[in-house]
Write a structure and sequence with these properties.
Elements: H1 3-15, E1 21-30, E2 42-43, E3 45-58, E4 63-68, E5 74-79, H2 93-105, E6 113-119, H3 129-144, H4 151-166, H5 173-180, E7 185-190, E8 195-200, E9 205-211, H6 219-237, H7 247-253, H8 259-284, H9 287-303, H10 310-323, E10 327-332, E11 339-345, H11 349-364, E12 369-373, E13 380-381
Parallel strand pairs: 4-6
Antiparallel strand pairs: 1-3, 1-13, 2-7, 3-6, 4-5, 7-8, 9-11, 9-12, 10-11
Helix pairs in contact: 2-3, 2-4, 3-4, 3-5, 4-5, 6-8, 8-9, 10-11
Bound molecules: 2-deoxy-2-fluoro-alpha-D-galactopyranose.
2-deoxy-2-fluoro-alpha-D-galactopyranose binds near residues 37, 171, 173 and 333.
Catalytic activity: alpha-D-galactose + ATP = alpha-D-galactose 1-phosphate + ADP + H(+)
InterPro entries: Galactokinase, Galactokinase_bac, Galactokinase_CS, GalKase_N, GHMP_kinase_C_dom, GHMP_kinase_C_sf, GHMP_kinase_N_dom, GHMP_knse_ATP-bd_CS
Function: Catalyzes the transfer of the gamma-phosphate of ATP to D-galactose to form alpha-D-galactose-1-phosphate (Gal-1-P).
Length: about 375
């Protein structure tokens, strides 16, 4: 049965009435540009054909009732017109509460509703299941209450919810791509101006995502720490964001920085350039350059930003040796577990997946999950 049928049925079971509409918010995979978003820099993600569905119907009071169909119908309820509290014991509810709180703080008039949530984005895998949930919730209220929010406004409200309510100091990439994805395209994003540049994925190439199935345990604490380290480097250079430090300036001054901070800054300064170079390489259909840039990005995340883990490095090496310059591979997302992303020629996909299947478990004792992905449109009404 497909997800849309499931979420409608789940809604009817939970609330004994039909949903008025269903919103679909996609997850994302980032092709290059990691941790550059909160440094005011560049990223190149695409929205993926895995998403979070939210079935919605209005209530006549100011209550919001939410049922998580994938969590045994676990539910939450709270009132719009009362202070919205953070719930320590149940992580998922805070993404919903946070978005509602942020919409309220921005002065939007909200209406009570019943919601049922169901999704197929692998969780804790670096594919933005939480951003998709946030964006889906904001889009649901946008439609239900005629808020007239633009896609960029939706993304900014959701990022603020995650920063202020959930407590992760994330950048804008995940929410922005979930809201703005374009079918068949990756989006080059200038995370300072929020300018979006569609880039075509080369003909005859597939996007493969391989989940190491190592959950990203350290993510929040280490993520926030990386962000602080980048901010202290920016302060040293006298800029608000590391995006404004050129490679030349960085190389001239890096010796004056604390060693760890210098490594973090080096990753960001070069990763920004790599992302711009990758956008050009995609436009030229230049697979060799894409391959080299993705390889350098991974190496930099491993040795300078220190956000990869052995299982992920092993997967990247396996795929890299197999595709041998005819595609690219790197870790994707925040790090400390999760997924790798590979751009692979269509006719090499079977060979690459077979290599992973016969080596990863043997080496790590963990079974991987492999997903084929294609770029899809951003959040919208599911049909
Ligand atoms: C996480 C964050 F939410 C993004 O904002 C981004 O920083 C990413 O990690 C790393 O590129 O997904």
């Amino acid at each position: 049965m497909n997800q849309l049928v499931d979420v409608n049925l789940g809604f009817e079971n939970a609330y004994s009435t039909k949903a008025q509409f269903v919103i679909n918010a996609p997850g994302r995979v980032n092709l290059i540009g990691e941790h550059t978003d909160y440094n005011g820099g560049f990223v190149l993600p695409c929205a993926i054909n895995y998403g979070t569905l939210i079935a919605v119907s209005a209530r006549t009071d100011d209550k919001i009732r939410v049922t998580a169909l994938d969590y045994n119908n676990d539910h939450d309820e709270f009132l719009i017109n009362a202070p919205i509290e953070f719930v320590k014991s149940k992580v998922w509810v805070n993404y919903v509460r946070g978005v509602v709180d942020e919409l309220k703080k921005s002065g939007y008039e909200l209406q009570g509703c019943n919601l049922a949530i169901k999704g197929n984005i692998p969780q804790g895998a670096g594919l933005s299941s939480s951003a998709a949930l946030e964006v889906g919730i904001a889009a649901a209220f946008n439609k239900l209450c005629n808020l007239n929010l633009t896609r960029k406004q939706i993304a900014m409200i959701c990022q603020a919810a995650e920063n202020n309510f959930v407590g992760c100091a994330c950048g804008i990439m995940d929410q922005l791509i979930s809201a703005n994805g374009i079918e068949g395209k990756a989006l080059g994003i200038d995370c300072r101006t929020l300018e979006l540049t569609p880039v075509s994925v080369p003909e005859g190439m597939s996007i493969l995502m391989v989940n190491s199935n190592v959950k990203r345990g350290l993510l929040d604490s280490e993520y926030n720490l990386r962000r602080q380290e980048c901010e202290s480097a920016a302060e040293f250079f006298g800029v608000t964001h590391l995006r404004d430090v050129s490679i030349k300036t960085f190389e001239e001054k890096k010796h004056e920085l604390d060693t760890t901070v210098a490594k973090r800054a080096e990753h960001i300064v070069y990763e920004n350039q790599r992302t711009l170079d990758a956008m050009n390489a995609f436009n030229r259909n230049d697979i060799n350059s894409i391959s080299a840039l993705m390889a350098d990005s991974h190496e930099s995340m491993k040795t300078l930003f220190e956000i990869t883990i052995p299982e992920i490095d092993f997967l990247v090496e396996l795929v890299k040796n197999k595709i041998n310059g005819k595609g690219g591979v790197r870790m994707t997302g925040g790090g400390f577990g999760g997924c790798i992303v590979a751009l692979v020629c269509d006719d090499a996909v079977d060979e690459v997946t077979a290599t992973i299947e016969s080596n990863y478990f043997e080496k790590t004792g963990i079974k991987e999950s492999i997903y084929m992905s294609r770029p899809v449109n951003g959040v919208g009404v599911a049909v």
